[in-house]
Design goal:
alpha/beta; Rossmann fold; 2 domains; 10 helices; 13 strands; 36% helix
Length: 333
């Protein structure tokens, strides 16, 4: 509680002055007795015991009225939370090499994309107040989902993402994946803009050079985290045998780690390597910790006038004092 006109509180000094004069008042008339021994046997009446109630009511009323004049106010604090979200584009490789089954889910061999989708699903749902979109690329790159706060829709689109099954559309256009993500972020007003690029191969589509694309990202203030998925050496890859059955065949998939490292370094991001499901989850967990939404809070105080809670009781005490002074405690001249 504060007082808007606190200088009125100085008037409270008159209360002890009034009490002082009341206690030390003198009477101009008195009755003299030669012997007061008989008076000692007289018990004081209730009204005599309550003889000081008038001064109590008067000073109480005065104190309340002075406090009311000082305009007491009650502060009602409210806090406004301001979040500065991060705009995130997920650039995911959906080329044919993502069919390699060198990852596991529940001790069962699973293709790389299925594991990636599961990890992305959890990553998205852990974010708060961030717009997230998704770009997929193979021979060509396109936006699977624009930047959105609707994580439900985004996770559904992540679940529907598939590996390309047309030979003419296969390939690994890392540069195009970056460029398409940049288009979604370049006009963003977010304080922080990032691309999480995930691939398991080497750029083999030369429409847009990945290093050049990373330099463009840097000019827009976009940071790129690169994630390389896949184990070293030969990996089990599903193929058809001469009877049309699907069998796992060891194949070698080239990975260009140097380019991915350079892309990350150019933009102030980081490079990660995931060789199993556990490490891939850990990587997205680390990125989640590194790129946290900035939260600020501004506290505002609204003041409510509460002088009425002092003035009305003060007036009631004053009225009661006047009534009692003219009835039960009326003095005869």
């Amino acid at each position: 509680m504060i007082f808007n006109d606190s200088w009125f509180l100085i008037l409270l000094i008159v209360i002890p002055v009034i009490i002082h004069f009341y206690r030390n008042r003198t009477f101009t008339t008195s009755i003299k007795f030669s012997d007061i021994s008989n008076l000692k046997r007289i018990k004081p009446s209730l009204m005599f015991k309550l003889r000081h109630i008038l001064i109590i009511l008067r000073t109480g009323a005065l104190a309340l009225l002075i406090i009311g004049l000082a305009r007491p106010q009650k502060g009602l604090k409210s806090t406004k939370i301001i979040t500065e979200g991060i705009d995130i584009m997920l650039a995911v490789d959906v080329s044919g090499s993502m069919r390699a089954q060198d990852f596991t889910i529940g001790h069962k061999r699973t293709d790389r994309l299925s594991v990636v989708k599961q990890v992305l699903h959890n990553f998205i749902l852990q974010r708060k107040n961030d717009r997230i979109g998704m770009t997929v690329f193979a021979r060509y790159a396109y936006t699977q989902c624009p930047l959105t706060l609707d994580y439900g829709v985004l996770t559904q689109l992540v679940d529907k993402t598939k590996i390309v099954d047309v030979q003419d559309e296969d390939g690994t256009a890392i540069g195009s994946g970056i460029a398409t993500s940049i288009k979604r972020l370049q006009d963003s007003k977010a304080k922080s803009k990032i691309i999480i690029l995930l691939t398991d191969g080497r750029n083999n589509v030369f429409d847009i050079d990945p290093i050049t694309a990373s330099e463009v990202a840097k000019t827009f203030g976009i940071k790129i985290y690169t994630v390389c998925v896949g184990t070293y050496g030969e990996v089990p890859y599903p193929m058809k045998d001469f009877l049309g059955r699907e069998v796992l065949t060891p194949v070698r998939i080239d990975i260009d780690e140097d380019t991915l490292k350079e892309i990350a370094n150019n933009t102030g991001g980081m490079y990660f390597r995931a060789t199993d499901t556990k490490s891939l989850k850990k990587i997205y967990g680390e990125i989640d910790k590194l790129e946290k939404t900035e939260t600020k809070s501004n506290t505002y105080t609204d003041y409510k006038e509460i002088f009425v809670y002092f003035v009305i009781p003060g007036l009631l005490l004053l009225l009661l004092e006047i009534i009692l002074a003219n009835t039960r405690f009326r003095k005869i001249p």
